[in-house]
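S.,

Sequence below, as promised.
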Amino acid sequence: MDHSGHGMTMDLPPFTLGRGLAWSADPFFLIACLLGLALYGWGVVRLVRRGDKWPVGRTVAFVAGVLSVALMMCTKLNDYGMVMFSVHMVQHMVISMVSPILLLLGAPITLALRALPPAGRGRKGPREVLLMLLHSRYMRIITHPAFTIPLFIASLYALYFTPLFDTLMGTQAGHIGMMVHFLAVGLVFFWPIMGVDPGPHRPGYLMRMLELFAGMPFHAFFGIALMMASSPMVETFENPPASLGIDALSDQNAAGGIAWAFSEVPSVLVLLALLFQWYASEERQARRSDRAAERDGDKELAAYNAYLASLNTRGG
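The prediction came back faster than expected:
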């Protein structure tokens, strides 16, 4: 019985973590992950050879982000995810909420702008095209909260509670397209919130936190809706292969629990990143103030001391 758009009969044994993590690469995602690592590595090497520094933490975060995508799409988790709602939900949550955060912490746009050579006067190279895209009206629209928050929410409800999901899961291209969509939605949602790379919208730290929490409760509500349902809600997962030995409704309840629990994961990750950025920003501001005081001989302090002295003189 062919349950998958992968063109293979999904006669899988009962799911275990060991079986799920076995190697089973999707060619599209394998090539994309290797290409992403190669381009990022090229950028870092170019900076280092030039004598510039690039934070190790950013490289670690980006590599972890790429590996998280590979873990979901280049192992048997991807095969089990075609027939088990719970495994599919793990894929969805990681690719839409964990992978984008890690990739963005790697600051790939900043690295590209620093590593790519200018094309020269009057010419347009990759660096100039990237800058044009960053400053375009299109980018301002797709990174605006009025667009990103509804898109983030619609990617759950409009996908799973309509026939669209079953249509996409029916072909390999549809399944790949859906996973790419999850990653892209996560990237445009978290990009302005993370604020590591330059972008059209750079809200303050408080506004970023508000944007983050505006989207997260809907993930929890979605998870609760799946957990409370009394019948299978997604046709693709209505009749799991007998070889799995699972009940469709129990598996759907597990998927709902995963969606509900995962709504907390990005909140914690992003809040930690924002608090760290906020602290680092305050530190930089304090250092700038100290340097300014050293340059002007701390005129403000001198003026204040003179003011106190004048008060003493008048009081005397």
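Confidence is low (pLDDT under 50) at residues 1-9.

Coffee later?
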